[in-house]
Amino acid sequence: MAHFAELDENSIVKRVIVVNNNELLDENGNESEAKGIAFCQSLFGGNWIQTSYNGNSRGQYAGVQMFYNKEKDFFITQTEPEDVYFLMGASEFFNRNMEEFIGKPNLKFLEIGSYVGTSAIEQVKNVLTGENSTIVCIDSWKNSFNLEAWFDKKTLPYADKITKVKSDSKTWLENNQDQVFDFIYIDGDHSTEGIESDTRLSWPLLKVGGVMALDDVLLNDETKQANNAFIESVKDKSTIIENGYQIWLRKTTA
């Protein structure tokens, strides 16, 4: 038996039905999704797509209220992955330190490590409200397709403000050393090598007078040592704004 999901105008699964395999056979006796879709439409109308009960295609078996990402050809759950840390924790640092940027035009922000887009959206809604103020979000989403799909869905209404870059940060930073940003938020690879690379390569992109925020500094000994090594390396070119679980610093000279 074959299974087909009906989608509403927002690509949300309305229902899933079972179709006899014979209804999918083309003139050569091969199963055809197009034939199955045509069969469903002949009975019910609407927009239909095949789904695999065993999850062998389109990521997982479709369920009612799931979202179908057409670009990625993937069903994802409507239960959003939680980003409680930002909303309940990291956001307090932003609330204290972002007032100088609120509503200004032509700002450029850079975020390394974007997860499902929560922090970027908060900046767009509350800080980057001025004309032509935007944020670039870099994340590899390696082995995290569902998270990437959620990022795409959540940030779609803010596409004019948010630029998604799917890449490892080292490669992107190395290839974009001519760019300049007013604010850089680093919450990417928490290994020593990752922190060293992200901070070292991001610093030249930060304009004089701009602000850099380093997240999860006190996560463990490795993150503490790696971030403090960077802070030491730029101590004559910066001033500390915030020093705790996050470190915020302002670039004072090139």
Main attributes of the structure:
seven-stranded mixed sheet; single chain; 30% helix; three-stranded antiparallel sheet; alpha/beta
Could you provide a short overview of the structure?
This protein has 254 residues and is an alpha/beta fold. The protein is built from 7 helices and 12 strands. It has helices spanning 33-44, 84-97, 118-126, 145-155, 169-174, 192-202, 221-233; strands spanning 2-7, 13-19, 47-51, 67-69, 74-76, 108-112, 134-139, 162-166, 181-186, 206-214, 238-243, 247-251.
Provide an overview of this structure.
By secondary structure, the protein is α/β, with parallel strands linked by helices. It has helices at 33-44, 84-97, 118-126, 145-155, 169-174, 192-202, 221-233; strands at residues 2-7, 13-19, 47-51, 67-69, 74-76, 108-112, 134-139, 162-166, 181-186, 206-214, 238-243, 247-251. The chain has a 7-stranded mixed beta sheet, with helices on both faces. It has a 3-stranded antiparallel beta sheet with strand order 2-1-3, with helices on one face. α6 (192-202) packs parallel to α7 (221-233). The longest helix is centred in the middle third of the chain and has 14 residues, at 84-97. The model has no long low-confidence stretch (mean pLDDT 91).
